[in-house]
């Protein structure tokens, strides 16, 4: 069967790609022909595991530890990409972090950390990525955002604010970078069953997943593969005229239902 997309000869960076959604995105891009930069910050073992899978597909892969929430971490990451590949075609800003607690319990350190990892890093990663993308003549940037940018979720104030800032950055950069032949968009997943869900207090309710499925018109939860499919579409020539948009992939969960 012919592949849906052809990313042969392209280099893709997926931040936070050692596990969860980022891992599946990285593998999908590799299946369509891209060489990969797998980024992690804490646990190298799962990052090396996905690297083995990518190499088995015949792709080149660079595994890099970098805390993208810190400026020196970003500089270190992109310095190694420049040295190894000398170019970058696709940037997927997937890594995310945050302190889930009510607004009145938020601390300055947690707020700063959340905004730095989830929003600031995308702006400055873009600054580093643009010269590398211009060498290729074009580029694609996709940020993984959250419905919490627009909808109130329990104990999600810091992450929600950071994702709202991320969505704004996507719009501004889409306009600014269009003349450089770089498209910028975002994907907003619905509820995806990954390890990250265990950090939310509302997950203590055993009925939360069944209720979410019942409230989803598509009849199931979103999978990491669904998100990877959306990212690959936005990175393809077929999405050339989609700029500065947030593509919601939630099976219809956030649609208003009359009644």
UniProtKB/TrEMBL annotation:
Give the Pfam families listed for this entry.
adh_short_C2
Q: Which domain of life is it from?
A: Bacteria
Supply the alphabetized keyword list: Oxidoreductase
Has UniProt tagged this entry with the keyword Oxidoreductase? yes
- Asked whether the UniProt record includes Oxidoreductase among its keywords, one would answer yes
Q: Where is the signal peptide?
A: none
Task: Tell me which InterPro entries the record gives.
Answer: NAD(P)-bd_dom_sf, SDR_fam
Molecular-function GO terms, alphabetical: oxidoreductase activity
Q: CDD domains of this UniProt entry?
A: ChcA_like_SDR_c
NCBIfam families for this protein: PRK07231.1, PRK08063.1
Q: Which family does it belong to?
A: Belongs to the short-chain dehydrogenases/reductases (SDR) family.
Name of the protein in its database record: Enoyl-[acyl-carrier protein] reductase III
Which species does the entry assign this protein to?
Answer: Pelolinea submarina
For this protein's source organism, the top of the classification is: Bacteria, Bacillati, Chloroflexota, Anaerolineae, Anaerolineales
């Amino acid at each position: 069967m012919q592949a849906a997309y052809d990313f042969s000869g392209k280099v893709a960076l997926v931040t936070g790609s050692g596990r969860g959604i980022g891992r599946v995105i990285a593998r999908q891009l590799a299946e369509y022909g891209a060489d990969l930069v797998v980024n992690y910050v804490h646990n190298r073992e799962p990052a090396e595991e996905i690297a083995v899978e990518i190499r088995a597909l015949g792709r080149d892969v660079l595994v890099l530890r970098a805390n993208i929430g810190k400026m020196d971490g970003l500089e270190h990451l992109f310095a190694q990409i420049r040295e190894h590949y000398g170019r970058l075609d696709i940037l997927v800003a997937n890594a995310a972090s945050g302190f889930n607690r009510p607004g009145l319990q938020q601390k300055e350190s947690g707020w700063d950390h959340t905004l730095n990892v989830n929003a600031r890093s995308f702006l400055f990663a873009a600054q580093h990525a643009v010269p590398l993308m211009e060498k290729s003549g074009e580029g694609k940037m996709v940020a993984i955002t959250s419905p919490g940018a627009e909808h109130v979720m329990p104990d999600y104030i810091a992450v929600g604010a950071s994702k709202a800032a991320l969505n704004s950055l996507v719009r501004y950069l889409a306009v600014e970078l269009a003349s450089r032949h770089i498209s910028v968009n975002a994907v907003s997943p619905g509820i995806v069953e990954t390890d990250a869900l265990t950090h939310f207090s509302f997950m203590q309710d055993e009925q939360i997943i069944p209720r979410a499925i019942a409230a989803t018109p598509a009849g199931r939860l979103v999978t990491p593969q669904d998100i990877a499919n959306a990212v690959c579409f936005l990175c393809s020539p077929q999405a050339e005229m989609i700029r500065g948009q947030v593509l919601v992939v939630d099976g219809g969960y956030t649609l208003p239902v009359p009644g």
